[in-house]
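Throughout this chapter, every protein is written as a compact record of paired, labelled lines. The reader may check this reading against the record printed directly beneath this paragraph:
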Amino acid sequence: MSYKKIILKPGKESSIERFHPWIFSGAIKCIEEGINEGDFVDLYSSKDKFLGIGHYQVGSISVRIISFKPAEINDAFWSDRLKIAYNLRVSIGVAENPINNTYRLVHGEGDNLPGLIVDIYNRTAVMQAHSVGMHVCRKEISEALAKVMEGKIDNIFYKSETTLPFKADVDHDNGFLLGGEADNVAMEYGLKFHVDWLKGQKTGFFVDQRENRHLLERYSKGRNVLNMFCYTGGFSFYAMRGGANLVHSVDSSAKAIDLTNQNVELNFPNDPRHQAFAEDAFKYLDEMGDRYDLIVLDPPAFAKHRNALHNALQGYRKLNAKAFEKIRPNGILFTFSCSQVVTKDDFRTAVFTAAAMSGRKVRILHQLHQPADHPINIYHPEGEYLKGLVLFVE
């Protein structure tokens, strides 16, 4: 099956020949008349060489390639890609795991489905489109997903209201594409939590921090823990299971604090070790004193675009400097950046600068990243977005 053509400028095909899945608007020579946002297109070089099939979108990234070979994009195509993704999750031990029913099934470019995210929470799949093309195909994808996951899920919830381009002329409504009677309690490493896929951030929970939360559990015994930017409290209830003396959860959102309290109560009912505070992070850090010897800094993305990078790095320096100043001797700091435009080197430099400003002796215990169910396409290094360090502060 052939689609309408987009032809590149001379010399602009080299990245595609290296299997990078993005075409930027500046690389395009001409667009065949009648192509609409979200349509499939055939991509050709200036010498009329076929390069791939992708979704067209208005904006900087004009084409996201989903096949580098001629293909018919039909039910069999979607099913095949989803089966490959599921089999990967089984092979790495996150799917079909009796103590874990939460994982990422599809991670965009990392699963050769750019613009598509699918997270599994127990019997519910939450599907999210980050491109108009995947939004247009949502029903076909959900039907293929239901077949591939038959017997494993009962519900598919579509949640793309905040992830689609705001200028796109599409219906952004969230809602169930399959089922609808969904229990919103899921499990991760034997711990339970509520998932707010209706109004929560991302797909309702930060699945990408699963292994890092599990690591924190090992360091929590006997410590006073501060979970800053706690959102739904994931790090908090892992710290409690790890044997923390006390755990304080802080977020500027009162709704996040409510969710944190609910999640802690699910796992540790009436446990006096936990308190939660709805307060600005920098204000809390300024006023908290030196009571904590394990601090988690997991802020939202400080930079979503490259033009915000400078301010973002200043934010990371300021935040980490305050933690270095206040953490107790022999304390442990878990610090993260989830900004894609902030590289590992950028983040490390910001944290190292903050450490130097504090004058404390600091050692790296772990260098952290996203888990294996958030795979990085080797041809698309931009997919490596989560960076973290575990630091020992004398």
